[in-house]
Design brief:
By secondary structure, the protein is an all-alpha fold. The protein has helices spanning 3-13, 24-45, 50-56, 61-86, 93-105, 110-122, 129-160, 168-187, 189-192, 197-225, 231-246, 253-265, 271-304.
Length: 305
Amino acid sequence: MSDTMIDQAMADATAPDPEAPVSRWSKILAPVVSLSILGAVVWQLRGLDLAHLRTLLPAGVGFWLVFLLYYMAGPVADWVIFRRLWSLPLSGFVPLLRKLVGNELLLGYIGEVYFYAWARRHMAPGTAPFGAIKDVTILSALVGNGTTLAMVLVAAPLVGSLDMGISGSTLLWSIGLVIGLSLVLLLLRRQLFTLPAPTLWMISGVHLLRTIATTVLAALMWHLMLPSVAVRWWLVLSTLRLLVARLPLLPNKDLVFAGFAALLVGKGARVAEAMTLMATLILAAHLLVGMVLGAAGLIAAARRR
């Protein structure tokens, strides 16, 4: 996304006239994102081994129900938040799905830019979409950082008992970066945040519930894939996975996580296969949703011409 587009988005968000006409960039962004998503789907499909994926898939309906809940947790949380902020209709769930897929398949935060353009076109005048989306995004990072720090305190004895090539200084620097970024955001909260404090607490609560839900659902999915391992161990492993993924500066994160898995559930538990299946299924879901939404977006754009 060019600097000109970002500057125009900022200008639109702060314009004094709430009924100012939608700028050209926001009109063309939807078909551009749809076309880009379709291109990313085609590119990613080149490396997806569908035959191997079919051999790994669990047969039970329960697994797919849990997977659906896991995949939809993020968009549902966003919809709940923006429903409270803007009275977002149920149809607003579609652009939230496109936001998720855009961030995952294209470029980080391109989904937020797209969702801002959609809100400018579809929501009632005076909703101030830029400020609300900015606050929601910043609070998501803050809640994630807070969860990471809490996991550091809980998992510190376990991390110390494992020898996986993580130096103490690297771990301390990673924790320091998380704390430093969080402190900067908190110190600048009056300048950064637009929404009132009670609303910010509501958004933070939804983000926290989403984090807890995805952690529990991931553990349940792994248990359904490998039922020989008790679900409580998967829950611990899922929590540690969240910790490893969010700490910066840690090299060989996959190796670190594999060490946790070997310690908790044993080396012969086919953990690596379960991890691979999870990653492949999430990518496949992004591709399927992206293909459907990308095609629908292009068709809708063509009909408007």
